[in-house]
């Protein structure tokens, strides 16, 4: 009702970079994160890249007094790395795993194995739908082979928000989107859902210049990623949206600046993002719905669809190459099998090379056949997912163009 007290919501968002055995000073940093969260007393904490459930369990025990409600989202082979801690009861949780998550044979990147996802929780205040997420990493901006996958993830995230937020009054999204603010994926997500950027709308900001969350002053940051961006880049966000009779304003936004407050080391290779939001009920429903289109949305969807189409063509080429390799390996196996049968039947001459070499060649051909078949099936699924997203974007684009 009009005049109802404002709900002041303090949010903490961080990509923790807590990879077991690989991340530098992981245990020390996880303890530091827990100590800081316990002292600061945020209302809602959204964490990414907490890859070890043992780390989550330790945080849960340490934060039980300040954040009695928490949840860890399990996904993929090694887990989603997503978890939330809340002062308010968590009524429901749901995990959506993106249909495309990179390539299983890119072992050095590992995005496919963790099963990048978006985790949602429903709370009792407002009611509030909060989302913690991470999209596929970029790795190389000049030759970004994962851009189509990241756009598919951004599109699926936007659709996920549209279809799961109908019962909510406020949507809150925090996470590592692995995209710059001007990138097509961010513009697509914000344009299609109507989410507001806390950094852009904050009445007061304190932290790294331009709100950057990967900065050269952080000793854990890979400096090679920042060669073209001397001030740093902003890829971690807090986004929000009021749905019905509520309004949301960002009073204050802060980031850490290379080191955790009061210490000589950072929380992570990413900077933490901390926002203070004011949520208030109005007298009449605002009438706003998710998906309110701005004038440039059709252009954004067109650009995104073009990038997805380019990825689709690349996926088709990869499917053809792997299929051709599988056929060649199968023909080699059949040829070897025919030669072996002829020798056993006494119809052929003595084997042209030793049995050991013959067996090794057969095992090699079999291995190539299995690998190539697996890749062909994977790229077939990739083609279907990219084609499906392209079709969805085309329908949306047509509806936007026909709209008065």
UniProtKB/TrEMBL annotation:
Compartmental location: Membrane
Primary localization class, coarse: membrane
Top EC class, one word: hydrolase
Gene3D superfamilies on file: Endonuclease/exonuclease/phosphatase (3.60.10.10)
UniProt keyword annotations, A-Z: Hydrolase, Lipid metabolism, Magnesium, Membrane, Metal-binding, Sphingolipid metabolism, Transmembrane, Transmembrane helix
GO biological process, one term: sphingolipid metabolic process
Family to which this protein belongs: Belongs to the neutral sphingomyelinase family.
Name of protein: sphingomyelin phosphodiesterase
